[in-house]
Structures are given as C-alpha cells and as structure tokens.
Design a protein that fits this description.
Largest sheet: none
Oligomer: single chain
Shape: elongated
Number of domains: 2
Number of helices: 7
Radius of gyration: 17 Å
Number of strands: 0
Order of helices and strands: HHHHHHH
Helix content: 55-70%
Strand content: under 5%
C-alpha cells in the first residue's frame, strides 16, 4: 500500500515503491525518465492535497472528524511513518504529521482542550 501523503506529494517515490513491489526495481529510473513531464496527465497525482481537511472543513466538522476518527488517524500515522521510515524519510513523515496536528490545534484550540 502507498500512503495518501506519498501519492499527493512524492511521485518519484510512488514510482519507486510500485516498481519494487512488482519486482521491477531495475526499471525504476527508466520509468521515471519516461514519465518526466507526464505527471500532469495522470489525474491520480493532481487531485490529492495532503491534509486538506485541516483547512477546508468548518470548525464544527473538523472537530467531529477529529473526535470520531482518532483511532483511524493514529493507525494511518503508524502506517505512514513505517513506509516513510523504510524509504529513509521518517523525518519528513514526522514533519508532515506535526504540521497537520499544529493546523488542527490552531483551528480548534478555542473549541476543545485536550483534543
């Protein structure tokens, strides 16, 4: 599986992960070269904005999502950190998670303590 954050932000890593998964790691560089400049033609890589919910939802909906999907968010974070760690990008994952959490806290700090 490829975490959504990776799909939304790191096309070369997605190609690398898929090539490795298919046992075609030796074709990774050629695939990237062939796709250079073609990413805009792949709609899967143009729609996603990682953590868009932190800016697009109203405060009430953001509070609902955070309160009701805590366990799922925690599981995703573990998965995301694991995948990124295996690719030498754990620091990047931690920074993205911290950024998301800071955005949520900034938006909701006046609504709830200890979210």
């Amino acid at each position: 599986m490829v975490p959504f954050h990776v799909i939304a932000t790191d096309f070369p890593l997605v190609v690398s992960m898929v090539a490795d998964h298919l046992g075609a790691g030796h074709l990774r560089d050629q695939a990237l070269e062939n796709m250079t400049g073609q990413i805009s033609k792949l709609p899967e890589f143009n729609k996603g904005i990682a953590d868009r919910f932190t800016t697009e939802l109203c405060d009430e909906d953001l509070l609902f999502v955070c309160a009701n999907l805590k366990e799922e968010a925690a599981l995703y974070d573990v998965f995301f950190r694991d995948v990124m760690g295996r690719h030498g990008r754990l620091k990047q994952a931690d920074e993205l998670i911290a950024k998301r959490d800071a955005q949520i806290f900034s938006r909701l700090r006046h609504r709830v303590a200890g979210l």
